[in-house]
Structure formats: structure tokens, C-alpha cells
């Protein structure tokens, strides 16, 4: 592969990773518009608790997570990206997620790790998910006692929605 082909491949992979990051940010901040931006309108998501249109998933998952969990955090690991033509890619991405909740008055963290098995498509130069299958490899709950960090004045903690401190940064950069 020549330098221009290598550069084009790197740009495609970066655009795919950016879509994956938008999805995770949208999930954790409770932003259905951001979640949907990672998918094509007719994309399907096979997520276990949901199986259907990905844009419907984006609208459904936000209130579902708000009802079940106090906060979530999704971390992406390595992605194996295999181009299957100029405008299609098969992508397997490892993830690890944490979901805060309470059980019988005890704070808990549900730890989930698995893989997103995605078929990506490029249209008009933009890469988005066309089909997703969620595979869970491990799930376990651990107690989450209060930390002394929570009592430090001035500590900033993440939250859902546009009240999260990160929205100020991204809004300022877009303006």
C-alpha cells in the first residue's frame, strides 16, 4: 500500500473510532441525539434488552438507563477494523462499562465487559454504524462504598445531561 492508501486507511479508521466515541459519550451523558449520530437512520441494534432500529434504541435507552442506574461509564478498548470494500467495514470493539445502582440500600457498581460487533458503512464521506450486535463476555456486581473523595470540597463529578461539565467545553468549541 502506498502512502496515500495508508493515509486514507488511517483517516477511515479515525472516523470509525470517532463514531464509536460519540456513541459512548451519548450513552453516558444521556444524549439520544448524540447516540443516534453514530448510526445510519435504518441501522439495527441487537443489544439484548433491545432489538430493533438503532434510532429507536437511542430514544429508548436514555430513560431506561436513568430508571435503572445512577450513572454509567463506557470505556472503549481495541478495535479490529477490517475494510470490506471502499465504503464498508467490519469492526469488533472491546468495551468495559460501569453502571451505578443500589440494591437493598447498598450502593453497587455493575461491571460489564464485552464487544460491539459492528458493520459500518460510509456514505457521502461519513462513517456510521449500519448494524450492531452486543456480545457480553463478563458481568458482575461489586459494592461501592462512599469514598472520602466524595467529601472533598470543589470536587466535580460526572452527571447525565448538559449539566455535565464537559458540555461547556464542547459547546464552546462548536461556537
From TrEMBL:
Which InterPro entries is this protein grouped with?
NTF2-like_dom_sf (IPR032710), SnoaL-like (IPR037401)
Give the SnoaL-like domain ranges. 10-132
Q: What Gene3D superfamilies does the entry give? A: 3.10.450.50
What is the name of this protein? SnoaL-like domain-containing protein
Species the sequence originates in: Sphingobium baderi LL03
Amino acid at each position: 500500500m502506498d502512502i496515500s492508501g495508508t493515509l486514507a486507511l488511517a483517516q477511515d479508521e479515525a472516523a470509525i473510532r470517532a463514531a464509536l466515541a460519540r456513541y459512548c459519550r451519548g450513552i453516558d451523558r444521556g444524549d439520544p441525539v448524540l447516540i443516534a449520530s453514530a448510526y445510519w437512520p435504518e441501522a439495527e441494534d441487537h443489544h439484548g434488552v433491545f432489538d430493533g432500529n438503532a434510532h429507536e434504541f437511542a430514544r429508548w435507552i436514555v430513560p431506561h438507563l436513568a430508571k435503572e442506574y445512577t450513572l454509567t461509564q463506557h470505556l472503549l478498548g481495541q478495535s479490529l477494523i477490517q475494510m470490506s470494500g471502499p465504503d464498508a467495514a467490519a469492526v469488533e470493539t472491546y468495551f468495559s462499562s460501569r453502571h451505578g445502582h443500589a440494591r437493598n440500600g447498598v450502593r453497587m457498581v455493575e461491571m460489564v465487559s464485552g464487544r460491539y460487533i459492528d458493520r459500518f458503512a460510509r456514505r457521502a464521506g461519513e462513517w456510521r454504524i449500519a448494524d450492531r450486535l452486543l456480545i457480553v463476555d463478563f458481568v458482575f456486581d461489586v459494592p461501592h462504598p462512599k469514598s472520602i473523595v466524595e467529601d472533598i470540597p470543589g470536587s466535580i463529578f460526572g452527571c447525565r445531561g448538559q449539566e455535565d461539565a464537559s458540555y461547556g467545553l464542547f459547546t464552546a468549541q462548536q461556537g
